[in-house]
Amino acid sequence: MRVYFDICCYNRRFDDKSIGEISLEYRYMIEIQKEIVRGNIELVTSFMLHYENYQKKDIRKRNNIDFFIKNYRKIYIGIENIEKLTEEVKIIVKSGIKEKDAYHIASAILADCDYFVTVDKRLLKFSNDKIKIINLIDFMEVYRNGKA
């Protein structure tokens, strides 16, 4: 199974875990990262994911995420793919998605991902026939049940 996780999924490790849904998403992301390390999930990352991560002011958080996405990714969609991505991004942006988010989704499409996983409620409203966009909790249910 090939999956692209939005930067907000990685950020769950550092969010306030006293909120029920965030606590569950945090636990699931930890479980998912273990599955990635075991090689059961193919991780896809992109230049946009790295760019957004490097915008973090907290160096500890930035380095933690950077270590994981660099060391466990199977596929990296780099800036050399910008022309291929731009056409898809234009289509996605027309639906109201912000450009940075559109690059994430387009990268997942280019990498032929099975899922684009996010906790961003705005992105969860977007749908197309090229990629399944799913929240972290639902993804874990799909993964556990082997429905991927």
Strand order of the largest sheet: 3-2-1-4-5
Report how far the terminal alpha carbons are from each other.
Answer: 7 Å
Number of domains: 1
CATH class: Alpha Beta
Query: How many separate helices?
Result: 8
Number of strands: 5
CATH structural architecture: 3-Layer(aba) Sandwich
Mean pLDDT: 94
Q: What can be said about the biggest beta sheet?
A: 5 strands, parallel
Which stretches of 5+ consecutive residues score pLDDT under 50? none
Order of helices and strands: EHHEHHEHHEHEH
CATH superfamily, by name, is: 5'-nuclease
Molecular structure report:
This protein has a single domain, classed as Rossmann fold (3-Layer(aba) Sandwich). It is α/β, with parallel strands linked by helices. The longest helix has 19 residues, at 20-38. The chain contains eight helices and five strands. The chain is globular, with a radius of gyration of 14 Å. The protein has a five-stranded parallel beta sheet. The chain has helices at 7-11, 20-38, 47-54, 59-72, 82-93, 99-110, 121-124, 136-144; strands spanning 2-5, 42-46, 73-77, 115-118, 132-135. Strand 4 (115-118), helix 7 and strand 5 form a beta-alpha-beta unit.
